[in-house]
Design brief:
The longest helix is centred in the last third of the chain and has 22 residues. A hairpin with a 6-residue loop joins strand 12 and strand 13. The strands form ten sheets. This protein has a three-stranded antiparallel sheet with strand order 19-21-20. Strands 1-2 form a two-stranded antiparallel sheet. A two-stranded antiparallel sheet has the order 3-4. It is of the alpha+beta class and about 775 residues long. It starts with a helix and ends in a 38-residue tail after the last helix. Among the domains are: about 130 residues, no CATH class; about 90 residues, R3H-like domain (Ribosomal Protein S8, Chain: A, domain 1). It is built from 16 helices and 21 strands. Belongs to the NFX1 family. One of its GO terms (biological process) is negative regulation of transcription by RNA polymerase II. One of its GO terms (molecular function) is DNA-binding transcription factor activity, RNA polymerase II-specific. Keywords: DNA-binding, Membrane, Metal-binding, Nucleus, Phosphoprotein, Repeat, Repressor, Transcription, Transcription regulation, Transferase, Transmembrane, Transmembrane helix, Ubl conjugation pathway, Zinc, Zinc-finger.
Length: about 775
């Protein structure tokens, strides 16, 4: 009724396009939920990827009920499906054919078709009356067709139960009758045990010998009447006596037939109690003990009955296979198996566990994965809690704990609303800090989560020690200046250089905080004049660098300066240490003069006596070129190509640094032996180049550094000096004609080997 009213008044909307369904528009109705859609809308929806079912094989889904359909609607039909493209009639329901519906109703047991006009929505219930019987079938009643309620009477069911022997005692009920609940007594096959089972169950089955096996020894008398059955309780008749003469054909060990023993004079057996003749051989039956490597057999003579216990030993291994143990197998295979399972060595496993942090330490370990059972215990990213997961590799998961309280900044202006993950920092606030401060100056920094506020940056005035001069400094410098008693040496060697650095090199500091000239006791001239003695004034307290951020900056700059001086020292530069030690220490730390030092000192006194200038060169010694040592020349003759390459590289490095913008340039040689490194160090002294060796053998290498204005190329290279020395000496007779042997088929003289003399540096003596 609701669908008919909305379609007639054009108030029904299509779920796909959300537009009103007109009375003349082609539509399609879902047969599961009875929603009405535009035909074109449902076609587009059915072809879209969003409408496909999850298994991709069931077709497309209805937009309303998600019921899957295989076929896509193509034609416009009435609600009952009889008429295609029905015409609209003012007196009929829109989109209907005006004829009887005739569709089968939803109720499966209703044989009647729908008898109202073509309509949207489900068909109404059937109005016809039919006669139905109760559940037990004993009574009948007249009810509406399609009524889903079941009919029950007050009579006893009486139907036969599953056992086929008893009847149902319940009142008329729906469905099948319950299984029979009566119990019957059953006996085992051997007749020694009984049990109670439900009537009609599978356990009630009997084959005439019994109903079940009690798993005990049967014990019934065999057909011989003298022996009992030794089999487990069984359903079939017992077997023949295994000792009957017509059954036994061999001796007890089974190696010799009885017919052969009868020929040898043995007595023929008549009944089952007669002894079975023995062949006299070793039994040889396999025993229950032993292992896969070696099977133990009975060593007794051919006998009846069970074999004696084994007297051999067997090797068993621990479960990890590290140790072997020898045991006696007197107890049989079962005892041997127990010993093999329980035997373990005392070796502890040293392999890493799955976490990669701990060792296994398991005794006689056979594990392949070595999973770690310890708790991780490392701190999580929040820094407050620890990981409670089993010990693992890699990073721990994020902290799962969450706060449901608001997290605010100090002033409360910025808020992070819950849930707030554990370890979250307070939000950043751009408001001015509202914390109480030690001074009354204006606050210029923002709200922060740290307990201590930054130093005050308000400008104030500071008097010198003698109250003579006033210097404008920041308030934090005045407030946090610490008075320390320092000696003259410490002040000059440590404090003063860095005070100058703070006051002059402001670009390196990267801050405007220290652009003010910091004045100590020695900087104010009136303070010096008013003091009794400058030495005693220096013993008075002086102001040193500020604390907090200023102190941190001081140590950072000091470390940079020391590192720079160490670098210069490695490159061969000298470092001034006079400010760091006293005069007494300088005297004690002087080097002892050697022969070279004494010779230089004697030449210096002689030059002063003869009034010879150090820069003069009367004998043209310096202009004659560099002096190469004999050892260097000898090494160069052995490997002239290596020396030539080294000099070429040094010459290029010196020219590049002198012509370029940089003050220093370096070159790193590959690792080489000690002799080659010595050649580079000696040549570097000639070229004025700094040379340093790095790393350990066998990767020790040399790095050379050319400095602008200090390094220069000599007028004569080492290779040219060697060439001149060789030309000044008589050349060895290496230029000759080679006379060939005529027996080789060549006659006459061959051409000269070379037009110029060949100098073999390996044959030249120094």
């Amino acid at each position: 009724g609701s669908l008919i009213e909305q379609l007639t008044t054009e108030k029904y909307e299509c779920m796909v396009c959300c537009e009103v369904v007109r009375i003349v528009a082609p539509v399609w109705s879902c047969q599961n939920c009875y929603h009405v859609f535009h035909l074109n809308c449902i076609k587009k929806w059915a072809r879209s990827p969003a409408s496909q079912a999850e298994d991709c094989n069931s077709g497309w889904r209805c937009p309303a009920c998600q019921n899957a359909s295989v076929q896509v609607p193509k034609t416009y039909t009435c609600f009952c499906g009889k008429v295609h493209n029905p015409e609209w009639n003012r007196n009929e329901i829109p989109h209907s054919c005006g004829e009887l519906c005739g569709k089968k109703r939803q109720y499966l047991d209703c044989p009647h078709l729908c008898n109202i006009l073509c309509h949207p929505g489900p068909c109404p219930s059937c109005p016809a009356f039919v006669t139905k019987t109760c559940e037990c079938g004993q009574t009948s009643h007249s009810v509406r067709c399609g009524q889903s309620t079941k009919i029950h009477c007050s009579n006893v069911c009486g139907n036969t139960l599953n056992c086929g022997k008893h009847s149902c005692t319940q009142v008329c009920h729906a469905g099948k009758c319950s299984p029979c609940q009566l119990t019957v007594q059953q006996v085992c096959y051997c007749g020694s045990n009984f049990k109670q089972v439900l009537c009609g169950s599978k356990e009630e089955f009997s084959d005439g010998f019994g109903s079940f096996s009690c798993q005990n020894i049967c014990g019934k008398k065999l057909n011989c009447g003298r022996h009992n059955c030794k089999q487990v309780c069984h359903p079939q008749p017992c077997q023949l006596c295994p000792r009957l003469p017509q059954v036994v054909y061999h001796c007890p060990c089974g190696q010799t037939p009885l017919s052969k023993l009868l020929e040898l004079g043995c007595v023929e057996r008549k009944i089952c109690t007669d002894p079975i003749p023995s062949c006299g051989k070793t039994c040889g039956k396999p025993l229950s003990c032993g292992s896969n490597e070696f099977i133990h057999t009975c060593e007794s003579l051919c006998h009846e009955g069970d074999c004696r216990p084994c007297s051999h030993t067997s090797n068993i291994y621990c479960r990890c296979g590290f140790k072997k143990k020898v045991i006696r197998t007197l107890g049989g295979f079962f005892i041997f198996l127990i010993a093999a399972i329980t035997f373990m060595c005392d070796k502890r496993c040293n392999k890493k566990r799955s976490c990669g942090r701990h060792k296994c330490t398991e005794v006689c370990c056979v594990d392949t994965e070595h999973k770690c059972s310890l708790v991780c215990g490392r701190k999580l990213n929040c820094g407050l809690h620890r990981c409670e997961e089993p010990c693992h590799r890699g990073s721990c998961q994020t902290c799962w704990q969450t706060s449901f309280d608001e997290l605010t900044c100090y002033c409360g202006e910025s808020v992070i609303y819950p849930p707030v993950p554990c370890g979250t920092q307070p939000p950043e606030c751009k408001k001015t800090c509202t914390r109480p401060h030690d001074c009354d100056h204006p606050v210029y920094h923002s709200c922060h989560s740290e307990e201590k506020c930054p130093p005050c940056t308000y400008l104030t005035q500071k008097w010198c020690m003698g109250k003579h001069e006033v210097t404008v400094v920041y308030w934090n410098m005045f407030l946090f200046f610490t008075v320390v008693s320092l000696t003259m040496v410490v002040y000059q060697s440590l404090i003063l250089p860095f005070v100058e650095l703070y006051s002059t090199d402001t670009e390196q500091l990267g801050t405007d905080e220290f652009q003010v000239q910091i004045q100590g006791v020695g900087d104010c001239s009136p303070c010096v004049t008013c003091c009794p003695s400058f030495q005693s004034c220096m013993m008075e307290p002086i102001y040193v660098l500020p604390q907090m951020k200023s102190t941190t900056l001081f140590f950072r700059i000091a470390a940079i300066s020391i590192a720079t001086k160490l670098t210069d020292l490695q490159l061969g530069d000298s470092v001034e240490i006079s400010r760091l030690i006293t005069k007494k220490e300088m005297k004690q730390a002087r080097l002892q003069c050697d022969e070279e030092c004494l010779a230089l000192q004697r030449n210096r006194r002689l030059a002063e006596a003869l009034e010879i200038d150090d820069n003069s060169d009367p004998f043209n010694i310096r202009s004659s070129g560099p002096k190469y040592s004999d050892l260097l020349k000898e090494d160069a003759r052995k490997d002239i190509k290596f020396v030539s390459d080294i000099e070429k590289e040094m010459r290029m490095l010196v020219e590049a640094v002198n012509k370029g913008k940089h003050t220093k340039k370096s070159h790193c040689y590959p690792p080489m032996n000690r002799d080659h490194r010595r050649i580079i160090h000696e040549l570097a002294q000639v070229y004025g180049i700094e040379s340093v060796s790095y790393d350990n053998e066998p990767k020790r290498n040399v790095v050379i550094t050319a400095v602008k204005g200090k390094s220069s190329c000599p007028s004569n290279t080492l290779t040219s000096v060697l060439d001149k020395e060789m030309q000044s000496r008589p050349a060895p007779p290496l230029l000759h004609y080679k006379q060939t042997d005529k027996s080789n088929g060549n006659s006459g003289l061959s051409k000269p080997l070379k037009e110029e003399p060949i100098i073999d540096y390996f044959d030249v003596q120094d």
